[in-house]
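Data availability excerpt. The first of two example chains:
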Amino acid sequence: MGFLNQVVETKKQELIELLISAEVYEVNDQHLYKLTLSELQEEFKRVKKENEEI
């Protein structure tokens, strides 16, 4: 696996762990591990904004 792939997979795993800690397990009926890095980042931003409003 190339260096860039390792970086992407590491970042995806970090975001998945953060989303799970926020009790998000699926997005649009897709499990988190099936989402792209961009999709995970967007969901994390949405969750973060939602939690700031509370």
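And the second chain:
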Amino acid sequence: MAASLGDTVARVNDALPPPGAPRAGWSSARWTAVGLLVVSWALTIGLYDRIPDPVPTHWNINGTADGFTPKPWGALLSPALLTLVWGLLSFGPRRSTDPRTGLPLRDMSAYQVGVLAVIFAVSTLHLWTLFDARRLHPVGVAMGVLLVPLGFVLPRVPRNHVMGIRTPWSMRSDTAWDTTHRVAGPVLVIGGALLIGFGLLGVTSAWTLAVLAASLLLPVAYSWWATRRG
């Protein structure tokens, strides 16, 4: 199964434009992220009267809301945060470039899909708040929505200081970086899919935490092991 998933991740990476390919205008990933921002603001305004007051803004380990913020700040917090994160990630890292091609990181298709994954994950959490789905585990689903697309595109992202498994070992060289992320990709896809499933099924938080920890720590451990082996 892992080998088959690894092949799938590799095929997705091959389907992306080459890292050094020039980009004309905005990519579909950027436009999709903007569309999510517009939808988030539109739903917040259109469903404002249905949004609970105070608004859930924090969830505990069991997926139960335990932190609340009164309107209007609670309702506007998520779309405002989405807009800020999108702006910082899309236009902020000006100096971060692919050392092999010189292409700015923020103009690479894989990076833009990663930014879209972040926006999509926060949007998922915001929609949970709007529709008040309290019986499920919104944080687990949101993390899964983030990890799955990241798992597909991270093997395509060059060594940088903004996005990826940035450990002292993976940052030593391009080879160490690439090796780490070829393993991290399938691990994140599997972990993210499990998190989404657990969240939708209301599986206990212990399993959610275990899968999340494994998804994040296994690539880190592998980067250390690969460096020592090499």
